[in-house]
Amino acid sequence: xxxxxxxxxxxxxxxxxxxxxxxxxxxxxxxxxxxxxxxxxxxxxxxxxxxxxxxxxxxxxxxxxxxxxxxxxxxxxxxxxxxxxxxxxxxxxxxxxxxxxxxxxxxxxxxxxxxxxxxxxxxxxxxxxxxxxxxxxxxxxxxxxxxxxxxxxxxxxxxxxxxxxxxxxxxxxxxxxxxxxxxxxxxxxxxxxxxxxxxxxxxxxxxxxxxxxxxxxxxxxxxxxxxxxxxxxxxxxxx
Length: 239
Hints:
The chain has nine helices and no strands. It has helices at 13-37, 45-69, 73-100, 109-132, 137-149, 152-164, 172-192, 202-218, 224-234.
């Protein structure tokens, strides 16, 4: 008798997103939260605006799998519909924050804007998969996990830089370590569900997207249409 091919316990992912929230809190503590609570930071409105909706998104990621685990399907669906309101605000907050922080030399605007844009791209694809396949729980859950993994990189890179490179500002080695850990997470998920027939394409797609967007940054690949877009975006009267 062949052993049963067990799917990953996606209903337990709320517990992992609690760890994600702790990681975000620790990662952003030195640069944001500590300064926010002791009123020593000089943050624009756009930092706070983004922080509010990012935290709300993480809370939704935590609550929704727990509701599935407890078989509260109706409540899960009602809260899920709130994402139709929440997610556009997450998008808007990222766009406004990115616009407000574009201060680099004109020739570097493309790469500078690529950093938040890559997160927005993968977040949009993960969430889009989750919504398109909302009636197929296995694929829906994978899409939401991808949309949650996007939050790991910004928090983890700050945690690594603060812990191991406190005097170097932005250390390329710290960023490469972060990229490696994100890849290990996705590869681990791919291996863990390699025998599944439904939805196992989601994590390989996410890994391929990460390889692409990180390659542009690491090798500083200049894409002329993107550079032109960045220059146009920077002069918009948004912030």
